[in-house]
Amino acid sequence: MTTTTPRPARRAPGATATPGGAARATTTSATTTSATATRGATTSTAVRPGVVGTNRRPASGAGNARPARAGAGGGGGGAGGRGGRRPGALGPVAADARGRTAFLTVLVLALLAVFAGRLVWVQVVVGPARAEEALASRLTTRTEVLGTRGQITDADGVALATSVERYVVWVNQHQVAEFRGSDEAPEGAAGVAQLLAPLLDADVAELGGRLVGEAGYKVLQKDVLPEIAREIRSLGLPGIGVDMVPDRVYPNGTLAGNVVGFVNSSDQGVAGLEAALDGTLTGEAGWEQYERGRMGQAIPGGYSEGDPARDGLSVRTTIVSDIQWKAQAALDAQVAATGSDSGTVVVMDPRTGAVLALADSGSIDPNSPGGSTGSLTPSVSDVFEPGSTGKVVTMAAALEQGITTPTDQYEVPYTYTTENGQTFKDSHEHELQRLTTTGVLAESSNTGTVMIGQRLSEPTREEYLRRFGFGARTGIELPGESAGRLLPAEEWDGRSQYAVLFGQALSVTAVQATSVFATIANGGVRVAPHLVAGTTDEDGTFTPAAPAASTQVVSAETAGTVLSMLESVVDDGTGGSAAIEGYRVAGKTGTAQNWVDGVQGITASFIGVAPVDDPRLVVSVILHNPRTSEWGGTVAAPVFQDVTRYALGELGVAPSGTAPTLYPTTW
């Protein structure tokens, strides 16, 4: 294979061989010459020394060509570089770049200065104020928080009244329109109603109408259960709020409803123990304020402060629920059977004054008191003449003063006229009777009682009546208690001074009358009747109530004698229907006139003690205007027997272990 080596280009005369540029100039010159020759041109181009030859036309009036441009190999430029620049000088592009960089640097620094200034302004100057404004817009208003109302329990700690967790669902009608809808519901109030109605068991259309308006707060439903409240909250519906409120409930309904009472919509007691002990049961209010989100929910970890509320004390009563139930059931049945207007049963422990049952006919259900009016506890507010049960005071006073003994003998006529011409008679017409003091009590003779009691001075009669509690409130923890009526002795008229001896011309409440017999059963010591055993605080610490006030009314000997005399009333007198097999029972029947709204009526009663050898119970049964019979021994004594027998068994009281020693009733 033949290799052809190219010939080097010939230099033009006077040309300087420089790398790259010179070679190109020589080649151009040769090529130009050849081209000229070919065309048959007759002129030749003169080239200045040091300048590359060219075929350009000479400038007008000159025989030499113009100097070559920079880059053609002349002018002092570097190889391949542009001619005409001084060594080290910047070109226009480099100068522009440096100017732009400086400008941008100044601009950035200026912007940073502005941002820094703004940051200082926002964070240092106005920042705290703006932060406070923002926080204030998220904070709830300072809200009062009430402590939970304390319970009311029976003697065993079983709740008779308690507060449970319930909720109120409300709407801010301005915010409901913000609901954007979901796959299950359209936007706005219609969608909110569609989601909320099933949970509130409401009609969608009706609920939707209640969601629209200008109210900032409107209650949609009360007494909402906790599980429903949680579901509503989980929906996150705008404008729908759920607040917890305490709800008072009474688990046993009518059981002791008259004693417990009830509260109003503001959780304030308005009847019964709820009213009387409202200050004890009501907790101490606190307050709270917290940072909330768009839907009103508390922001976790957000601002929150407050003073926690303190729950009220729980009150333990002396009521024994089973005995209360029996007393109420037996009373209601007898009121219905006898056609009585009303009635009361009181069960008391004579040793402590504790009321174990306090039943008034027609007891209400505190869960739905409705339009209850007047006193719920006529046993402490309504008064009546005690009748023959009041003869116990006369006998106790006569024995204490030494005027008579249980076996003193009297000839008792059907009618008896006093020195001032007042005539009294017994309830049943009879021939002249030969009765002992015990017999006068057992047969409930009015004439015999006047014959014995008239030997007591009038001031002494009043003194003993007041000692036994007549004319004064007992202090039992119920609202509306009456003191009864007992005029001073100097205000008694000619008949009243004798009538008070057998329970007329004065009036008492059922609790006062029961307390008289409790005093006799307790060795002559009157202990104030009470319903509160003590209180329990938030920590579960039980504090017993202070011991009830006690007063020695008559001697223990006198009280024991009267109790034995009362045992004869059941064993061989008007109270035979009160007898309880296995237990020694003492008691007294009573029948007295009463006046209600100007209409005369009858109050029939029986009050008794069991067992006589170790008194544990005093039970009174009082019926107002019985239609089947007016005698206490007929309509009231059987109820005493039923209730007392049940209560003795419930308390585990052993049967009597001794035989009675009875005083003779006749001679």
TrEMBL record:
GO cellular component terms listed in the entry, alphabetical order: plasma membrane
Gene Ontology biological process terms in this record: cell division; cell wall organization
Keywords: Cell cycle, Cell division, Membrane, Transmembrane, Transmembrane helix
Pfam family, one: PBP_dimer
Locations listed in the record: Membrane
SUPFAM superfamilies listed in its UniProt record: beta-lactamase/transpeptidase-like, Penicillin binding protein dimerisation domain
InterPro entries attached to this UniProt entry: Beta-lactam/transpept, Beta-lactam/transpept-like, PBP_dimer, PBP_dimer_sf, PCN-bd_Tpept
Gene3D superfamilies given in the database record: 3.30.450.330, DD-peptidase/beta-lactamase superfamily, Penicillin-binding protein 2a (Domain 2)
Domain Penicillin-binding protein transpeptidase: 343-643
UniProt-recorded name of the protein: Cell division protein FtsI (Penicillin-binding protein 3)
Taxonomic path: Bacteria, Bacillati, Actinomycetota, Actinomycetes, Micrococcales
